[in-house]
């Protein structure tokens, strides 16, 4: 099974037999086989026939519709969430202060530890850089405080402080002098590094979200991120452990290895409300500059998106040692295993949620 991406504003998706056919503006024909497809991501505006939609629904292909800038427009979702009992456990856990705080602490501290490991790699490359060393010490102290946080609000404060320390030295891991990063920015991304980070976080979000729904969990019931109408708080929670090892490291590699070039970015003027990314939660807003009103932003071009998507899929197929199973598996599989682990914690089959933490 695979993920298929369609990146175009010109084309038509129709049905022919048991296959989908994408007709491009230049006459190019591409065949897509639903029985071989796990998810379909459509970025842009294409015409989809009724027959094509029926075929996607018959094969239950999770289909995500994005704008050309990565903005979420909607999706076809076939997970009905029939397991009412696990959802009941989610709601009960919200009112079980000790357990919900324990889960939130593990998620937040797992993320902070992954960021610390990233910072330590920067230090090894820049041994004479005193700023990195002092920031690392602050990050360590902040993790110790987070581990002892008496309540969720205090914990969120430490998690936000950790993000500020982390992003203050993030640029030092990128060698290209034309790469711009002055801190995390969103709505829209203010520079080329933020454009890549935001798009990678978007791709990661939907991968985690699919695993959550496959296990019949309610993606709107989270523990670290605040609950709000229409906010997929649990998806934000469970993607935290992958932000640094998957998205952040890949972002740097895309620049450092010369995969992305200056021509892969475009500057766009946005009106307020035209540039929302689905990954930005209230907690993220506290850690980043949020651009308001009509502002200039930076997005990936179509060629840039293709490069990022291709490398993201390679990254997700990367094998690494997964201690709970005592074997090497891919990030794609780890995400599902971690969601199942989280589910067992909710069912009290295991006592502590252990996020993926890489050294």
Placed side by side, the strands forming the largest sheet appear as: 1-5-7-8
> How many domains in all?
2
**N- and C-termini, Cα separation:** 30 Å
As a percent range, the share of helical residues equals 40-55%
Silhouette: globular
Round the mean pLDDT to the nearest integer and report it. 89
At the first level of CATH, the class of the largest domain is Mainly Alpha
Which CATH architecture of the largest domain would you pick? Up-down Bundle
Question: What is the H/E order?
Answer: EEEEEEHEEHHHHEHHEHEEHEEH
Number of continuous helical runs = 10
Helix/sheet category: alpha/beta
Radius of gyration: 21 Å
The number of strands is: 14
CATH fold-type name of the largest domain: Four Helix Bundle (Hemerythrin (Met), subunit A)
The parts where pLDDT drops under 50 for at least 5 residues are: 277-282
Specify the biggest β-sheet.
4 strands, mixed
- Write the CATH homologous superfamily of the largest domain: CRISPR-associated endonuclease Cas1, C-terminal domain
Strand content: 15-25%
Notes on the protein architecture:
- The protein has 359 residues and is an alpha/beta fold.
- It has 2 domains: 2-76, CRISPR-associated endonuclease Cas1, N-terminal domain (Ribosomal Protein L15, Chain: K, domain 2); 84-346, Four Helix Bundle (Hemerythrin (Met), subunit A) (Up-down Bundle).
- The chain has 10 helices and 14 strands.
- The chain has helices at residues 50-58, 84-94, 97-125, 130-147, 152-169, 192-214, 233-256, 282-287, 302-316, 331-346; strands at residues 2-7, 11-16, 19-24, 29-32, 37-43, 47-48, 62-66, 72-76, 185-186, 265-270, 289-290, 295-300, 319-322, 327-330.
- The strands form 5 sheets. The chain has a 4-stranded mixed beta sheet, with helices on one face.
- A hairpin with a 4-residue loop joins strand 13 (319-322) and strand 14.
- Helix 4 runs antiparallel to helix 5 (152-169) and helix 7 (233-256) crosses helix 9 (302-316).
- Residues 277-282 have low confidence and may be disordered.
């Amino acid at each position: 099974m695979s993920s298929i991406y369609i990146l175009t504003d010109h084309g038509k998706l129709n049905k022919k037999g048991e296959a989908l056919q994408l007709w491009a503006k230049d006459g190019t024909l591409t065949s897509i086989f639903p029985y071989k497809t796990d998810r379909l991501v459509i970025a842009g505006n294409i015409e989809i026939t009724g027959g094509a939609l029926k075929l996607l629904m018959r094969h239950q292909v999770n289909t995500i519709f994005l704008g050309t800038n990565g903005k979420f427009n909607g999706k076809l979702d076939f997970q009905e969430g029939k397991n009412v009992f696990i959802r009941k456990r989610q709601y009960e856990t919200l009112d079980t202060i000790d357990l919900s705080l324990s889960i939130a602490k593990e998620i937040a501290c797992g993320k902070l530890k992954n960021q610390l490991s990233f910072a330590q790699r920067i230090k090894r490359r820049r041994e004479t850089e005193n700023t990195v060393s002092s920031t690392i010490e602050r990050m360590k102290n902040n993790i110790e405080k987070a581990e002892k946080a008496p309540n969720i609000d205090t914990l969120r404060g430490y998690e936000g402080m950790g993000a500020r320390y982390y992003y203050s030295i993030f640029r030092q891991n990128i060698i290209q002098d034309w790469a711009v990063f002055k801190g995390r920015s969103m709505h829209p991304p203010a520079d080329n590094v933020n454009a890549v980070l935001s798009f990678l976080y978007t791709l990661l979000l939907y991968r985690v979200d699919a695993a959550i729904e496959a296990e019949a969990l309610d993606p709107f019931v989270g523990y670290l991120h605040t609950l709000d109408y229409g906010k997929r708080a649990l998806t934000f929670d469970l993607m935290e452990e992958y932000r640094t090892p998957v998205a952040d490291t890949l972002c740097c590699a895309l620049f450092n290895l010369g995969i992305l070039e200056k021509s892969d970015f475009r500057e766009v003027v946005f009106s307020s409300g035209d540039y929302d990314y689905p990954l930005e939660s209230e907690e993220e807003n506290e850690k980043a500059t949020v651009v308001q009103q009509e502002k200039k932003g930076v997005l990936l071009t179509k060629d840039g998106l293709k490069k990022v998507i291709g490398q993201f899929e390679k990254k997700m197929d990367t094998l690494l040692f997964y201690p709970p199973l005592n074997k090497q598996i891919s990030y794609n599989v780890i995400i599902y295993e971690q969601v199942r682990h989280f589910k067992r914690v909710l069912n009290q089959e295991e006592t502590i949620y252990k996020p993926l933490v890489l050294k």
